[in-house]
């Protein structure tokens, strides 16, 4: 009896269509070339500016420090944000505004107070020297210099009231820039040390945490 040859598949032992050969399936993958990212890998995050920590979790926007400004620009920003309690204010913006406030309020009020007090003291000294003695009350005459001093003090008070709101607003924003909530301004009302606490907080540098107030 003649032995029949074994019947082979029509495809000659080739793998089914659409399937990679065994060797192709099990070949090791080549490492990515220099400058190329591995397929499916997450692209690298850009470094945070100025060496600050990166907040990739989406809590804050990327940290961008407030620009440095001069004296005139700080005054313009102060009045442009007259009642703005949102956002941030840099240290240069805050301290130039503080100097402006000291000039327009402190100088007329200080000069007026000196003129008024000087006139009173001068008259008291004259009355003691030429008066009738310690048993009578001294006579104080309201002179022209004392009147001018009083006017200057009133002018300083009016200016202080006019810039009270922007002064509070810029302090509020300066606290934001340092990463502190604005209501910490009210620590200034603590007797004795409150003003010193707020002063120290406004001196501190900007922090990335302050960006959460920028997004309000």
From TrEMBL:
Enumerate the transmembrane spans.
95-120, 140-165, 185-204
The ranges of region (Disordered) come to: 1-52
Instruction: Provide the alphabetized UniProt keywords.
Output: Membrane, Transmembrane, Transmembrane helix
Name the domain of life: Bacteria
Please list the residue ranges that the record marks as compositionally biased, kind Basic and acidic residues: 1-13
Ranges of compositional bias, category Low complexity = 16-40
**InterPro entries noted in UniProt:** DUF805
Compositional bias, Pro residues, is annotated for: 41-50
Recorded hits in Pfam families, A to Z, give: DUF805
Identify this protein by name.
DUF805 domain-containing protein
